[in-house]
Write a structure and sequence with these properties.
About 45% of the residues lie in helices and about 15% in strands. By secondary structure, the chain is α/β, with parallel strands linked by helices. A six-stranded parallel sheet has the order 3-2-1-4-5-6, with helices on both faces. Helix 1 links the parallel strand 1 and strand 2. The longest helix is centred in the middle third of the chain and has 29 residues. About 40% of the residues are buried.
């Protein structure tokens, strides 16, 4: 990995899965990291597990569906570290496994609020900081579900298509200002989210669902967080 000494990175959804592994790798590369997640205790446990040094990290319990919380994690990062070099807009949820005809409006709203509004607000409040700096990079976590369909996960699939659209818009708006905006589209990754999806797809045999999902991957296995 490159040397990120002197760089400041914000990671949302930092207390688990891909977010935690990203925090580990950036910290090991010398970056200062702001870890954002819903639960303060989970953030503290993550910082302890990763062995983050005092002065190298900031923990911010925030709900990415609330614009005021997003503005706060950006402001606190800038106040502590002076700048924001990288935003990993990663927080996301899978929602309930259900066919469209069986999906309730509350489930739809919850997934779209976290996965779309959370990304939008992150872009909205980090981009001005990076524009002032005349540099920066933003990575949004989309999914292979943002490129194709999947039965039983329509809110999630719709949300990840939206993340790709937001990424394209932000890249066009910020590209001439020294800012790169990209999305990553992981296939199934061996995290809590996939355990939930497997159980939803096949309550009686989640292991069978896991095997089916794995067989759809060219390598015939799930990816691991560190590979993302």
């Amino acid at each position: 990995m490159h040397d990120f000494s002197g760089k400041t990175v914000i990671i949302t959804g930092a207390a688990g899965g891909i977010g935690k592994e990203t925090a580990r790798q950036f910290a090991e590369a010398g970056a200062k990291v702001t870890l954002v997640d819903l639960n303060q205790q989970a953030l503290e446990q993550t910082a302890k597990e990763l062995g983050l040094k005092e002065g190298q990290h900031l923990l911010v319990a925030a709900d990415v569906t609330k614009e005021s919380d997003v503005k706060r994690y950006v402001d606190e990062t800038k106040n502590k570290f002076g700048r924001v070099d990288i935003l990993f807009n990663n927080a996301g949820i899978e929602g309930k496994f259900a066919l469209i005809k069986d999906t309730d409006s509350e489930s739809l709203d919850k997934v779209l609020d976290v996965n779309v509004k959370g990304v939008f607000y992150g872009l909205k409040h980090v981009l001005p900081v990076m524009i002032d700096q005349k540099e920066g990079a933003i990575i949004n976590t989309a999914s292979v579900a943002g490129l194709t369909g999947s039965q039983g996960l329509s809110p999630y699939v719709a949300s990840k298509h939206a993340v790709i659209g937001l990424t394209k818009c932000a890249a066009l708006e910020a590209g001439d200002k020294g800012i790169r905006v990209n999305a990553i589209c992981p296939a199934p990754i061996n995290t809590r989210m996939m355990r939930s999806i497997e159980a939803g797809a096949s309550p009686d045999s989640p292991e069978a669902a896991k095997e089916l999902y794995a067989q759809a991957v060219p390598m015939k296995r799930y990816g691991e967080p560190h590979e993302v």
